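Materials and Methods. Structural model of cyclic-guanylate-specific phosphodiesterase. The 287-residue sequence of cyclic-guanylate-specific phosphodiesterase from Halopseudomonas phragmitis was retrieved and submitted for structure prediction as follows.
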Amino acid sequence: RAKSRGRNTYSHYLPCLTEQARERFELERALRTALANGELSLNYQPLVSLEHGQGLGAEVLLSWHSPSHGQVPPARFIPLAEDSGLIVPIGSWVLNQACQQAQQWRSQGLELETLAVNLSPVQFLHQDIVALVGAALESSGLPAQHLELEITEGALMHHSAQAEQTLKALKALGVRVALDDFGTGYSSLAYLRRFPLDKLKIDKSFLAEVPANQGDCQLVHTIIELAHNLGLRVLAEGIERSEQWHWLQTQHCELGQGFLFARPMPAEAFANWWAAQPLSATPQPVS
Ligand code: C2E
Ligand code: MG
Ligand code: MG
Ligand code: MG
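The predicted structure was written out as tokens:
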């Protein structure tokens, strides 16, 4: 396939790399300077109560606009950041920036119950994540109970003794922990008992064909019941259609997130979205 970008400056020096490897190399090179050049920004996607659809919080999602590569989705650059170790400075910037934003909002009356920040397994296992989280809370002033850390099964799978210790230390700070993309990794039910988790996030792939697909409905039903039986809250990701929402209501799934409610947005747009909600501005009297 011919490359249209015309940026093959490195092909001369790296004759053995395949085109795919070269692209990866170039992207990683661009990522190295992205943070310092101000190319990274944060988007906030509402987490809503499925009872009424009102916002309860936000998940922070990283966005990269590279001058040379354009908008690069996290699915492409997060793995590179993890392999290169860049996830450590990037992840700590995300955490600090997000906590400051949330606390600034709180002081302006936009009171998020939950600010959810994704942690890579690399950060979780190799960085002094407990000190990092403690420092981000302290410097921002955000009360710990409003911060939720989203980890994946991959963070728990290896080194599970270390993972258990880290989770306990994080919980001691007062933050909450959600298990993200639940069902897509090497799920072990033993994890759910062993680790002090607060929430399960059901991966969007399980919701895509709900309620038409009987098998998927059974599966999601079972996950919701499992979460509730274990005393965990449960959130369904990737809600795009109202029939998915209504079916989830019949299943007593309390929380959701998806394009039906709102897409991830820059901070200012998020604040406008929040302010435009009738229920958050004036709580409705119960009739
Ligand atoms: P995630 O943590 O599971 O985040 C949810 C993803 O689902 C986001 O994709 C979001 O835009 C997308 N999404 C939300 N609602 C819908 C919907 O209704 N339909 C569909 N099709 N998608 C929906 P995004 O922003 O592309 O991020 C992808 C993944 O990249 C995230 O998945 C997370 O694993 C990772 N990521 C993003 N930001 C960070 C970060 O700051 N740190 C780390 N370590 N990982 C991050
Ligand atoms: Mg997440
Ligand atoms: Mg997720
Ligand atoms: Mg996901």
